[in-house]
Write a structure and sequence with these properties.
The chain is mainly α and about 425 residues long. The protein is about 65% helix and about 0% strand.
């Protein structure tokens, strides 16, 4: 008799972004950070150049190696371009809708007072400088792309059609268009506001300062990981383009998803000092772990190393998206990198970092009430991120590719398997959302 064959494990569903895209972006980013540190270029415009150094290699890798522009998911047919005369009317309506959308976003910026103070002033400066180029380049870009799109009548066209009072527009397409640009408008302003500070912090440290102690090494590496995260995320929000297959398929249509996400970002953030979920009252601030382990160099080095590792996982989760990172959107399913271990590596690592870095149950006031308050508040913060994860999955489960990925993860990924071993429960089967 033949020996029984061992059942083979099915392959993990293919990721929408290859690992090479992220590695190319990292190479460009580290190159510019090295140059900037060598020549002391820690200003705001050097920080913007860092985004270019990160983004261009990813664009080139995506086009030349992965050839993403040839994918069916782009909605582009390069082999059968239409004559310009056939699409010019559609394109002009689309441009009107696009410009009107930017105008609405501009009005919102004018109304939001927080956009005109602090770090947000840099965002407004960048957007103000970019407006003439965006207006000028959008015309040839739309006219060129519409010749190749299988269906050029997208959300911008429907919005433009509605604006000029013509028939044929669809309300659902306009809502999708509005949600997608609301994501870009809100998060791009926030990302640009934090780009210069993080870049200057990494570039400004001297090598002697970095190597002065294990704590300094850990803090600089943590800052570097956050710089990576911010750079990749900002590039992702910028390049939502169909020729790169990085366009927004859908923006989260569920109100609870928006509430869960927005309460984690200014001006709605609840976790900062004075916020409802502030969890560091009576502590040593963000330096809790350094305070409590002071005088214990070995433990400081080990604890710092763990925090660096958690931050690296968090940054890796953003790098894995390549050109496609953005909150509240579906731009292709990522299944490689840290997403081969858990469906939410960024949230898991970020929350573990907060617990281990702040140690909320230890307080400098020696008051039990402060320890209880801080611990409960941080637990509620973690609960918010669990809620965010659930609302994001509710959105993504409309895509069969995510259903296949979620089911593979439940059955074969290491972290879900450990959870099942601990709880004694079987794998949860994901079902498509209606």
């Amino acid at each position: 008799m033949d020996a029984p064959t061992r059942q083979t494990r099915p392959a993990r569903p293919e990721s929408a972004v290859s690992a090479g895209v992220g590695l190319a972006g990292l190479a460009g980013l580290f190159f510019w950070v090295t140059v900037s540190r060598q020549y002391g270029m820690d200003g705001s415009w050097s920080a913007l150049t860092n985004l270019i150094a990160c983004g261009i290699p990813m664009v080139l890798w995506s086009l030349l190696v992965d050839k993403v522009h040839l994918r069916a998911s782009t909605g582009i047919d390069w082999a059968n371009p239409r004559p310009l005369r056939e699409v010019v009317d559609i394109s002009l309506v689309k441009i009107a809708g696009l410009w009107a959308t930017w105008g609405v976003i501009g009005v919102v910026y004018c109304l939001g007072r927080w956009y005109w103070r602090g770090n947000y002033l840099f965002s407004m400066e960048v957007f103000g400088a970019a407006i003439p180029f965006l207006l000028g380049l959008s015309v040839p870009y739309v006219l060129w792309l519409d010749r190749y799109l299988k269906e050029p009548r997208d959300g911008a066209w429907h919005f433009g059609t509605w604006l000029i009072g013509q028939s044929g527009w669809n309300g659902e397409d306009i809502c999708h268009h509005a949600r997608a640009w609301a994501v870009k408008g809100f998060f791009l302003a926030f990302m640009f506001s934090i780009v210069p500070g993080g870049f200057a912090h990494v570039v400004g440290w001297t090598t002697a300062d970095i190597l002065s102690s294990p704590v300094s090494i850990a803090n600089w590496l943590i800052s570097l990981m956050f710089l990576v995260d911010v750079a990749f995320a900002t590039v992702g929000y910028l390049l939502t383009m169909k020729p790169l297959d990085a366009h927004i398929r859908t923006a989260n249509p569920h109100m609870q998803g928006w509430v869960a996400a927005l309460m984690c970002y200014p001006p709605f953030v609840l976790m900062v000092e004075g916020g409802v979920l502030y969890y560091q009252m009576g502590t040593w601030g963000d330096a809790s772990w350094m305070h409590w382990f002071e005088g214990l160099p070995v433990l400081l080095a080990i604890w710092g190393g763990v925090l660096v590792l958690l931050t690296a996982i968090y940054a890796w989760a953003t790098v894995a998206f390549g050109l496609r990172f953005s909150n509240l959107t579906h731009r292709g399913i990522i299944t490689n990198g840290p997403y081969a271990f858990t469906k939410h590596p960024a949230y898991v690592s970020k929350n573990a970092f907060w617990w281990l870095s702040t140690l909320p149950f230890l307080v400098t006031t020696d008051k039990l009430v402060d320890a209880v308050r801080n611990t409960v508040m941080l637990a509620l913060v973690s609960a918010v991120y669990y809620w965010r994860a659930r609302t994001e999955e509710k959105h993504l489960l409309t895509d069969p590719a995510y259903v296949a990925y979620a089911n593979w993860m439940e059955a074969y990924a290491p972290i879900p398997r450990v959870v099942r071993w601990v709880t004694g429960k079987g794998p949860k089967v994901a079902v498509p959302a209606e």
